[in-house]
Amino acid sequence: MADFQYDVDADGIATITWDVPNKSMNVLNIEASQELEALVDKVLADDAVKGAVITSGKADFAGGMDLNVIAKMKEMAGDNPAKGLFDGIMGFHQMTRKIERAGMDAKTNKGGKPIAAALPGTALGIGFEIPLACHRIFAADNPKAKIGLPEILVGIFPGAGGTTRISRKLDMMTGSPVLMNGKLSDPQAAKRLGLIDEVVPADELLSSAKEWVKNATDADIVKPWDQKGFKMPGGAPYHPAGFMNYVGASAMIHGKTQGVYPAARAMLSAIYEGAQVPFDTAIKIEARWFTNVLMNPSSSAMIKTIFTNKTALEKGAVRPEGVADMSVKKVGVMGAGMMGAGIAFVSAKVGIDVVLVDRDQEACDRGLASVTDILDQGIKRKKVTEEKKAEILSHINATPDYDALKGCDLIVEAVFEDPAIKATVTKAVEEQLEPSAIFATNTSTLPITELAKASRDDTRFIGIHFFSPVHKMNLVEIIKGANTGPEAVAKALDFVRQIKKTPIVVNDERFFYANRCILPYVNEGITMLAEGVEPALIENAAKLLGMPLGPLQLADEVSIDLSVKIVKATQAALGDDYKGTNAEEILFKLFDEDRMGRKNGAGFYAYDEKGKRTGIWEGLRENWPVSDEQPDLAQVQHRLAMQQVLEAVRSFEDGVLEDIREGDVGAILGWGFMPWSGGPFSWLDIIGADKAVEICDDLTEKFGERFTTPALLRELSKNGETFYGRFGPEAKADAA
Asked: Is 534 inside a domain boundary?
């Protein structure tokens, strides 16, 4: 079936309707692009057709490009994938340029046919680059719609003309957030920015667009950049002030990316170089830089993890087979603290009825107030209406009465991280539940198998680790106990899908996956501090890796008292097997001096009265003097990166992780591991197992057994294999 339909009304206005069969959202592929181009040719060739409107048969216009097209274009080119990509990209440019020029005479800019875009809802990526080529963009007044170019967020940039057109449509200051931050706007905001032309009532969308097409003149359809004497907005790069905009943009990009994201650098190069030449040359420059990015292993890894793997996990790639739908109808949330209130909010937001329970009504009311505060913040940012706030709150029953839990098909317990308290709550709650209900405990460190011993049925007991703050963090770590059954796993996955978050499923072991990897990163940073490494070198080395927070800052964010609590709990659990580190002395000293981190405005960093960081606490250098001889940057970075990566590999070796896709997605979404790398397993594949072994062996010799090369990594090196080549979904499919 065709992705586009075509009809012509009595006034000679053609309507090209994008409606991909069996898809909830339109996405573009090579065949559909060729189909659209053929219909544009049909409009231009038919003298009876005065112009056209391109619209959607769905609630939204389009979600962008099917990124699997990139792999297809590479494959089609055989031994020269770069040429295949460039030619394919230029094919898209040809199609959009044909829309834009619309049959105009090249010299006079006359004789073209007006083509408008009518967007009923969201238009993203190439789903907005096509409208940008149209002569006028109409959008329905739909506050839920999102319009923009988010490609930079998955490791590429708008490469089907969006970069070149936006840089000619808007000045650098206005266009930078759209291109460089992937900022999305609702239709009204998009109009204010100058991204679109008209916002009209939804029931007048098509008629308004047709009316404009019917009355458009030659002057109405010539883009500014196709007119004689066109100058870039702001005069850039010819005018000194315009040139300084580029200097500022370059500095801004480097400040945000630390130079490790190739797409950001390439996009700015495409804008700067393209600004100095005519439009048709500029889009060739854009295509060359886009090809350069697509050939970069970093961008390929980001696309694979942030788009392909993340989407697969959200669609149930690791859901147990044969288990019927387990969607949640009524959830009980035990504990109305910050975590419980966040869980209640994200559940009620999607229409799930919530019973929020705590020890007394006062505590319950505080939890409900926390939910209200989240909603009020949304209202201030114009993301939530008063009506939506009332609707969400109507789904939450905040009460200390356990009888209200009757009828809940899922419980999410979020009380204190104390096994005894959790056991008491588990027993009391299960008295109110049907045997079919699933009990989930929210914990970041406590072993699920032990906690499940308090349950009447450990096959229906599971761990769900939410990251804080719940309403902002997208990852949810689902932990299977030794006896957790498939229905409990399916229930947890279906719940996470309902609340629109990304799940990973891991097996039970202390610290699970995310904390198992991130704690060594923090400890290594503090260990280096104890060794006399300059704290600024530690923090900046981490940021130059692309980590969002240095290990010392992260320790402050987590809180020093929690770190001390984790150390003590681990010591108690492991007994004689526990191996201490130099980091503990520093943590305990800060704890004793009441430097708990950001929570009380004193930790590894100093803070002002408003809680804003003012710099590294000078007392660090006084208490732990800086050595005269400092390590080189690469060594510090290798130590910080490998402490995370090696723990990820060991998690996979140990069976905590069952799927390396979850390891990569979990690392990026859970603690911000070097997003440009695609995650720890993708990064190891980029640098190669041989190089990784070389780094590990060197670090082991200098710093000890914590850097010992895992047997699996050494095996891959010996066999010349990669993680995705051996354990990725395609390898598993071939083996099956």
From this structure: yes
